[in-house]
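User: I'll paste a sequence; please echo it back and then give the predicted structure.

Assistant: Echoing your sequence first, then the prediction.
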Amino acid sequence: MTPSIKRVVKIGGRAQSADTLASSIASAWIADGAMCVVHGGGDEISALQRKLGGEPRFAGGRRVTTAADLEIIRMVLSGVVNKRLVSQFNAAGARAIGLSGEDADLISAQPLGISEFGFVGMPVSINTSLIEMLWLSGLLPVVSPLAASAETPGTALNVNGDDAAAALAVALGADELLIIADVEGVLDSSGRVIDELDIDEARALIASGVAAGGMAAKLEAAHAALAGGVQSVRISDLPALEDSTRGTLVTLATVGAK
């Protein structure tokens, strides 16, 4: 039987530098019963792109990905970041196993728009049986957010980590999606953390430019998760793993007056 408490945790690249990351993940994994980690690694990808003579480009908070960029992303995310995190989590007491979304078609995606984004995809199906099998074996899946192309078999697509985490949370029927960033939560125009906001308010933040780039992508992923039935979505920093009141709670609609 699959454990009843399910949580998907997305860890942004900058949040991975925290000294307490591995111990916090291990403690949360032990407490939750079933957890799946999805990671980013954007700064490291950008650094390698520049080292190889390229320049990162973004649209709507998502990395524009050429065929050459895709190989760089595979190297950094699946080959370096994933294995580094798995090693750290295991050393801290978790039984972690690294996966790419390409493995066993864990994540299948459709191209988001070749002309604008290149080899970037949006998840359309998740092989939940793979994650559930790992959970039943007492393992912590750590997922690199690449995907198998649902349109062109044998081709990979780069998936934004927030989009991948939201899709996994929906497919697994997660109790919570926690998106860990390098800020305490979603910030208002004065730089203060917003404790709670609904989707209409999130859209307004994006439209005004207050929430832009990566934060806009996080809010869009939060909407997708909530619309798909995930019970709770929070955006915060690492301490939120152990403090359920920390960060910004995103809801589909406001309950009562604010």
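The mean pLDDT is 92. The chain has one domain: 6-181+232-242.
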